[in-house]
Amino acid sequence: MFPPRSQRILLAVLAASALLSAVSGRLNPYFLDVALGAGISVVLASSLNLINGFTGQFSLGHAGFMAVGAYASAMLTTTLAPRLGLSANLLQWVFFPLSLVAGGLLAALAGVAVGAPSLRLKGDYLAIVTLGFGEIIKVVLQNVDAVGASRGLTGIPSHTNFFWVFGSAAVTVYVVWALLNSTYGRGFLAVADDEVAAEAMGLNTTGYKITAFVVGAFFAGVAGGLYAHLKGYLNPGGFSFDKSIEIVVMVILGGMGRHSGVVVAALLLTVLTESLRQTGAFRMIVYSVLLIVLMLTRPQGLFVWPLWSKKEGRP
Amino acid sequence: MSDPLLELSGVTIRFGGLTAVSSVDADVREGELAGLIGPNGAGKTTVFNMITGVYQPTEGAISFGGQPTAGLKPYRITELGIARTFQNIRLFPSLTVFDNVRVAFHLHLDHDSVHSLTRGPKFQAEEVQLRERTRELLSIFRLERVQDEPAKSLSYGDQRRLEIIRALATRPKLLLLDEPAAGMNPTEKDELMKLIRFIRDRFGLAILLVEHDMKVVMGICERIHVLEYGRKIAEGTPSGIRGDPKVIAAYLGEEPVKES
Amino acid sequence: MTEFLQQVLNGVSLGAIYALIALGYTMVYGVLRFINFAHSDVFMLGAFVGWATVERLHLPTRSFGGGLAALALAMVVCAILGVVIEKLAYKPLRNRSTLTVLITAIGVSLLIQNVSQNPTIGFGPNPRAYPELFPARQIHLGGLTVSTNQIVVLAVTVVLLAVLHWIVHRTRTGTAMRALSFNATAASLVGINNDRIISFTFALGSALAGAGGVLYATLYPSIDPLMGTLPGLKAFVAAVLGGIGNLPGAALGGLLIGLVETFVSGTRLSTFRDAIAFAILIAILLFRPAGLLGKLKVEKV
After folding, report:
1. How far does Cα B243 stand from its chain's mean position?
2. pTM over 0.95
3. Which of C99, C236, C261 to mutate to test the interface with A (most CBs of A within 10 A)?
4. What ipTM describes this predicted complex?
5. May I ask the CATH class of domain B1-81+172-260?
């Protein structure tokens, strides 16, 4: 049957986001802000899940990809857009999504650069290299005057709305799900399980790993663009190691390599973080204790019940 | 007699100063059941790893179906039609039994990442067909009853069999089996011998096996190559090998006792 | 030429500190095969212990006796801390996947940083001036300016490296450590108490990091709870550069990173200083993943 059920669900979610977007102006602005933040987290966590969870390539550089996309799209809307003299509607509904895609593509290019070392490195070595990549991006952004250097980039128009955030989230989840749910896509899991055996079964392990990095980085870049046009202000410090860790925690909490668990974790953690903001300085303490306790007691993730799946404890 | 399917000529590999395999010539013909034997450390698995592209020979050439395989990555060699199993079983432990086999059909797919996203009618038809073929293959070996279990939960013998089925799903012309009888009891070994013969006849492919168990090797192989310290010391039929003084010496670790 | 020598001197004193931290990474990697992310925070706490000896225990400043006492106390406190971290967070995870341990280590690191940054239960996030533990004077040798602090850093590092070498190569515990990093299963079969040796390794590595913390703060006298991150990462790069698991390699790597960083700081690229270490890391891992002095292990198929 065509379109298949998965695509009909995607279309339904997109339509629902559009409807909600139309009435989102009536929502409490604070609530809307938290909701949009949570939606962006879903994009980030689902895309990292493809790299870390399904393909088993532990990356600590997701904030770096996000930064690339954020700065690229923000540069387009702040420097190029005003010269084109577009109407507000064209800016919001045509130029902005194109700038998101451009940011995503640039991040995907960075994904190729980071994915290349992953062909030779495993586990904690790869983690450190991706971490280093994230830091390099940050240092470069801090030093390039055209993007505001360490002062940051200001005056970014607020194009991000309910539709773009939850539409992107739905597309990200669909893409990751659809990639995995095919005979081709089972190859990602095979690469995560045993690279030597995967190669011996005729799987191009290099191709799979690069694909995971490229697709993951693309959506992280899109999330960065959404974030930039939500906050209206970018600062290289906002894309530090801590941000990457935040996304990693979502993926781990949701159970690496599980679609719905990771979405739930991304939503829940963003809201939880927001409510912990009142406790201020204790927020990150709670976060880190949570991480340690989780690893010691439930490394397979929090939102994974034996009922959901027979495979458990994917490392 | 048919043309050689796999041909090794003067194959040598050195790791640092150590020569693990030294100018080995060997071949496997189409549809043949061949064996590669030798004492521990003779370099049997290393030969397998060179044939499958995990290692590159330092000297010499390997060709498959007339095509040299030098410089090809392992997955390319699998594409040419060589599939293998591993000495210490390497399944995809967290994938289901079904997916272990299904993923190996990947080589003969028409669809790729883009089709997974568009999920058009052709993609769907192909997926349905692949599921059918996976189920068929599993049922030939009577593993369909556990198809939804994770591979790691299978018994040892079933894991060995699943590894063979997975290799068959790549539709090889040559199947390399690395110590398939390791850890099996005599009954299981008898079944394995039947299974190997059955696979050769049913799928019409050549099989090369590395094996320690003499009963298995002598029982099924039509031709046997013997390695010792990385060199080939003999080649022949099971009965010829059994009587070869060099082979006896290699296994007993001394000169054959002279008749006085 | 004088300027070159001056840069070498500055680079070597910075590199000596990186070497001390790098040894801890490499030793832990040797016995447990994972990157102890919390190591850089132990280094930070070492610096704070030195600060506390003056501010809380009122040890004399600008004296060699007081300075060495601060150094010794920092080493002891960090050694204990290292063992506690290992027992509570890592020991329950023996034989679990590398990633589980790695993530736990990141959690421990974040916990130490955030508790330290908390104004109620920690030190608060603001940087503080570091007391002058050792008598600070500038000595002029020809065109070179040598501070007594640099001499202290170099002298202490040399002594600590010598002691470490003696422990690893001349004592039973050191031999057991080497055996453990060679083959953990075999080591336990010949009667080595692996848990005890792992604790000892953590104590040793953390003590060196503690000393590194005091020395680093002596050269760069401003401390804060996040001060460990960058030196820690650079020291890790040093360990990889030298060949992870290899002790002389870590020392050599530390010196090289210190020198490169100092020379880059002297050029127009100085603001990229912190990115250089990572660029080096990525280059080594791509072209010589075993490091300068390490041996590559081939995966058995």
Report:
1. 26
2. no
3. C99
4. 0.89
5. alpha beta
